[in-house]
Amino acid sequence: MATSISQETVPVRQSVPADLIFFGVLMILSGIMDTYIILANPAYGLPVFGMKLTGGVGWFFKFLSPVLHFASGYGAILGRRWAYPLFMFYSLYGLASATVSRLVLPPPHRIRTVFMIVLVLFMIYLYARRKAFRN
């Protein structure tokens, strides 16, 4: 027997927890700040795995940061499942790059060290909340 459209079940979108929305807003703000910093300082070479890349490759890696911030922020605000692995992979990339840069580049490393600590704390928190990404 065929079912009519009215009998089919429609998946219900669950409400997104406030902490994920807050996290998403922080990520979008971070993307806005990244974009501003990149445009205000076009000559700055972002250290990627201890190398300061220039030219087209350098611009690609500079703009990769705000793009991934915007994408993971958007996904977190909507509670999308893909936002969690996107943030975690991006965080692991950032953590690995910051670690290599810390080992290779000359001091001071205050900002890089604080970034690494805060990033690990965010990763631990989001790992504990990973099931909240369910839409």
Automatic annotation (TrEMBL):
Transmembrane segments: 20-39, 59-79, 86-105, 111-128
Keywords (A to Z) from UniProt: Membrane, Transmembrane, Transmembrane helix
Protein name (record): Uncharacterized protein
Record organism: Candidatus Manganitrophus noduliformans
